[in-house]
Predict the 3D structure of the following.
Amino acid sequence: MLGKLAKWLRLLGYDTAYIHDAADDVLVRVAVRENRITLTRDHSLAERLLMRGRSYLVTEEGTGAQLRQVVRDLGLTVDESLLFTRCPVCNSGIEETPKSEVQDSVPPYVYRTQERFGRCLDCGRVYWKGTHVEHVLQALAEGRQKKV
Ligand SMILES: [Zn+2]
């Protein structure tokens, strides 16, 4: 249910596991074993995990609002140096890659206009610091402006 939020948290550099459609018992076990905070929209799951202090109920609608809720309530910080360090698809680390090595992996326009590229150490996808990270930062900024 929170797949897009998971991607956005990864774009901010947060180690975010995403388990889709697993039984509650599996989620509880993984959360405890890997010492994770479980973000969920499921009240009963949140209550079960809350006893161990590891759950957080996401109540907002829309990914931007959800991200602002999580960042605010869990006290997450946006660290510029961590942006663009984690693969949004598989959560593995991204390693900076010389431009000359990615020509065949990116669209020609991107190759012409971007200078810095990174490759996921696990799935091999190539990333550039383009619009993805900007979208996330913009969504966070919007929330701040609304409060003023
Ligand atoms: Zn990856």
Q: What stands out?
A: The pocket of zinc ion is lined by residues 87, 89-90, 92, 120, 122-123, 125 (CB under 6 Å).
